[in-house]
Amino acid sequence: MNRVLLLLPVLLFVGLGLLFWTGMGRDNPNELPSVFIGKAAPSIEQAALPGIPAPLQADLQAGRVTVVNFWASWCPPCRAEHPTLKALAAEGIQVIGVNMLDREADALGFLAEEGNPFAAIAYDPKGKTRLEWGVTAPPETFIVNGKGEVVFRFIGPLVGDDYLQRFRPELDKALATQ
Q1: pLDDT in tens, 159-175
Q2: Which long-range contacts (C-beta less than 8 Å, at least 24 apart) are formed by 45-51?
Q3: How confident is the model at residue 178 (pLDDT cuts 50, 70, 90)?
Q4: Which residue has the higher pLDDT, 5 or 173?
Q5: Contact status, residue 40 vs residue 148, Cβ threshold 8 Å
Q6: What integer is the mean pLDDT of 111-126?
Q7: What is the mean predicted confidence (pLDDT) over 108-114?
Q8: In 3D, which of 29, 116, 34, 35 has the Cα closest to residue 71?
Q9: Average pLDDT in the 66-85 region?
């Protein structure tokens, strides 16, 4: 019995080591899968910021790829990715924003200062739309195909190699099938 008790910590250590080893072997251990991949995008209709069009659900089913970006003016990574969103819009890609958990004046001030890449913006000060889409924190970005189905979810800012190696190939793939 004493030998069993002596071996128990060793066995637990080896078991945890194997568990961690297999977890590290995943393709992208930081990626959280979305339950919406391959399914219709949740509702995006929400009040708008003054002077900016509100998105309609039909915008996501209009036959063109749409990038849906959840952002807030108080979010430093959102500020870092803003030039990328402006570049996507300049390419002719429809970008719809969902301003979440923000004050109206702060959101409008941010857009006035940095520019507005969004074709439409849903203003979601209480985070209802965020919950429906399963967003954990801004920024999060979704690629929606022309049929209104979510084809990719990207957590974090659209910057650097992460953008170039993970997001952009998925966007290009979606654009090629439009």
Answers
A1: 999 999 999 999 999 99
A2: 45/122, 46/98, 46/122, 46/123, 46/124, 46/128, 46/129, 47/122, 47/123, 48/120, 48/121, 48/122, 48/123, 49/99, 49/104, 49/107, 49/108, 49/111, 49/121, 49/123, 50/104, 50/108, 51/108
A3: confident
A4: 173
A5: yes
A6: 96
A7: 97
A8: 116
A9: 98
In this structure, what token pair is assigned to residue 140?
Answer: 């999060």
Give the per-residue SS3 of the chain: CHHHHHHHHHHHHHHHHHHHHHHHCCCCCCCCCCCCECCECCCCCCCECCCCCCCCHHHHHCCCCEEEEEECCCCHHHHHHHHHHHHHHHCCCEEEEEEECCCHHHHHHHHHHHCCCCCEEEEECCCHHHHHHCCCCCCEEEEECCCCEEEEEEECCCCHHHHHHHHHHHHHHHHHCC
